[in-house]
């Protein structure tokens, strides 16, 4: 059975302490919008990883679909939050790992990344950079990267559960991106074209744009 992990353990530091996953956009929370995308995609094993202080609140939020949505306590880091949720997943199939703060992922993109992970073992949504990207040290440009090779990785990222479990057992370190964990094993992650509307709500400006997207 395929599973989806929705990481909702953020403290909203860059939004002035406001937990973005609980913000309402057009009458519906960011977290609810994200979870519903996986329900629409036919995922019936959805695990939400959240802060201990928010466990009961989140459980009540999904009381109407509690048979397919499970809530677990997150960890001190994003990776630990994912691990806690992964340990609650059903066995076999693909695991999708998604940031709760990306409520506008397309159902068709979820299905595409699942299909690619089933073929290759590891896949992630990403969009090609349209900007020139430079590395900078102390406000001085050091190098200009080849824009044709630069992609902005999104979520969900999808992996064979067996592969992901192996990575957790073999790779040492803490990573903010699950693809890094797989890359450290020497396993390739295949890119699936995502959508520019699959934004991650991080700043007040992102929130204003999200309000526009919710009306489309």
List keywords for this structure.
seven-stranded mixed beta sheet, Spore Coat Polysaccharide Biosynthesis Protein SpsA, Chain A, alpha/beta, 216 residues, two-stranded antiparallel sheet
Write a brief structural summary:
The protein has 216 residues and is of the alpha/beta class. It has helices at 30-40, 55-61, 78-86, 107-120, 161-170, 178-183, 204-213; strands at 3-8, 24-25, 28-29, 46-50, 69-73, 94-99, 122-128, 134-137, 140-144, 151-160, 190-193.
Largest sheet, strands/sense/barrel: 7 strands, mixed
Question: What is the string of helix and strand elements?
Answer: EEEHEHEHEHEEEEHHEH
Which structural class best describes the helix and strand composition? alpha/beta
What is the 3D form? globular
CATH T-level topology = Spore Coat Polysaccharide Biosynthesis Protein SpsA, Chain A
The residue-averaged pLDDT reads 94
Tally the beta strands. Answer: 11
| SS strand fraction | 25-35%
- The order of strands across the largest sheet is 5-4-1-6-10-7-11
Cα distance spanning the termini: 32 Å
Instruction: State the helicity in percent bands.
Output: 25-40%
SSE diagram, text form:
Blueprint: E1 3-8, E2 24-25, E3 28-29, H1 30-40, E4 46-50, H2 55-61, E5 69-73, H3 78-86, E6 94-99, H4 107-120, E7 122-128, E8 134-137, E9 140-144, E10 151-160, H5 161-170, H6 178-183, E11 190-193, H7 204-213
Parallel strand pairs: 1-4, 1-6, 4-5, 7-11
Antiparallel strand pairs: 2-3, 6-10, 7-10, 8-9
């Amino acid at each position: 059975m395929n599973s989806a992990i929705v990481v909702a353990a953020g403290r909203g530091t860059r939004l002035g302490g406001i937990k973005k996953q609980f913000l309402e956009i057009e009458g519906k929370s960011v977290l609810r919008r994200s979870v519903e995308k996986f329900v629409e995609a036919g995922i019936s094993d959805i695990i939400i990883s959240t802060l201990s202080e928010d466990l009961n609140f989140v459980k009540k939020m999904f009381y109407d679909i509690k048979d397919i949505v499970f809530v677990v306590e997150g960890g001190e880091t994003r990776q630990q939050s994912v691990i806690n949720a992964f340990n609650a997943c059903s066995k076999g199939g693909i695991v999708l790992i998604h940031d709760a703060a990306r409520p506008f992922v397309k159902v068709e993109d979820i299905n595409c990344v699942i299909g690619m992970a089933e073929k290759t073992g590891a896949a992630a949504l990403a969009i090609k950079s349209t900007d020139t990207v430079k590395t900078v040290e102390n406000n001085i440009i050091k190098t200009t990267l080849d824009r044709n090779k630069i992609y902005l990785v999104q979520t969900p990222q999808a992996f064979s559960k067996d592969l992901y479990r192996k990575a957790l057992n073999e790779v040492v370190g803490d990573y903010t991106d699950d693809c890094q964990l797989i890359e450290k094993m020497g396993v390739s992650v295949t890119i699936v074209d995502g959508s520019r509307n699959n934004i991650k709500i991080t700043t007040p400006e992102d929130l204003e744009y999200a309000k526009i997207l919710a009306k489309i």
